[in-house]
Amino acid sequence: MSTLMRRAGLSSSALVLALSLSACGGGGGESGPSSGTGSDAPVVLSQDEADGALLTLDDVGADFTELGASESDDQDLGCLSGLTELSDVDADTEAENNFELETETSLRSVLTAVNSYADTATVVAAVEAFRASLAGCETVEVTDPESGSALALAVTVDDAPGIGETDDQIGFSGAGSISAPGTSYSYDVSFVVSRVENALSVVGLVDLAAPGEDVLPALTETAVGRLTDAVG
Q1: Is residue 194 part of a domain?
Q2: Gap between the Cα atoms of 58 and 85, Å rounded
Q3: What range defines the domain where residue 133 resides?
Q4: What is the pLDDT of residues 15-58, one digit of tens each?
Q5: Mean pLDDT, the chain, integer
Q6: How many CA atoms does the CB half-sphere of 221 hold within 13 Å?
Q7: Under a CB-based contact definition with an 8 Å cutoff, are residues 138 and 152 in contact?
């Protein structure tokens, strides 16, 4: 599967949506529990606390390969481009991990990210802006002018998934295809962004070539529970 995808120039494009949310902020991740100013300032998670709120290999399945964090450039995602704006919001602490399960005929990727912010109002506004950017988002049709790869999705937005105990939550799913000249694969993606006080948890699932079991709700519930425990 990898050889064929790389020959088609699809290996990086297949994860374009996941990588757009991989940072979900631009801070340095150096803040500790005492970050913030004033007696009413929110507590910023330490790096260890944020890392501990991520999903693990035990959560996603022992057959997956743990990839660690990834870097990405801003991408044109049509009406999902609000993802890149969300990723530009500075976080004081950032944690991320990615997992991949490859078979002879398909590729499944799982993203888990946690960010903590010194200013709750900033992250509240960022999630609301992301929600507004998804209003009316029903289809994505974008083509990379350099590689010729194209992404076509039918999009469904869930304004309130109601998974776990959160202060705010929004999700979306997309089903369609990703292609390069002479090659095409089915492409299914789903993400949930959850806010607990001044922290965000992002869980994403990407299926290339064959949709798999819908485990996103269960993974999100686990991630939200860990974030809630970390925030205290």
Answers
A1: yes
A2: 31
A3: 47-231
A4: 444 444 444 444 444 444 434 444 467 899 999 999 999 999 99
A5: 82
A6: 6
A7: no
The C-alpha R_g of the chain, in whole angstroms, comes to 17
Indicate which CATH number applies to the domain containing 204.
Answer: 3.40.1000.70
Tokens matching residue 181: 């000249």
In this structure, the number of other CB atoms found within 10 A of the CB of residue 150 comes to 17
**pLDDT over 70, % of the chain:** 79
Identify the weakest region by mean pLDDT among 59-73, 122-136, 155-169. Answer: 59-73
Q: In what order do the strands lie in the sheet with 93-102?
A: 65-68, 93-102, 107-116, 199-208, 183-196, 168-180, 150-158, 139-143
Q: Is residue 7 part of a domain?
A: no
9 lies in some domain: no
Domain assignment of residue 227, yes or no:
yes
CA 144-150-151 angle, to 5 degrees, is: 115
pLDDT of residue 200: 93
How far is it, in rounded angstroms, from Cα 12 to Cα 28?
25
pLDDT digits (tens, 9 = 90+) for 78-113: 888 777 677 778 899 999 998 989 888 888 989 899
Within 10 A of 222 (CB to CB), how many other CB atoms are there? 21
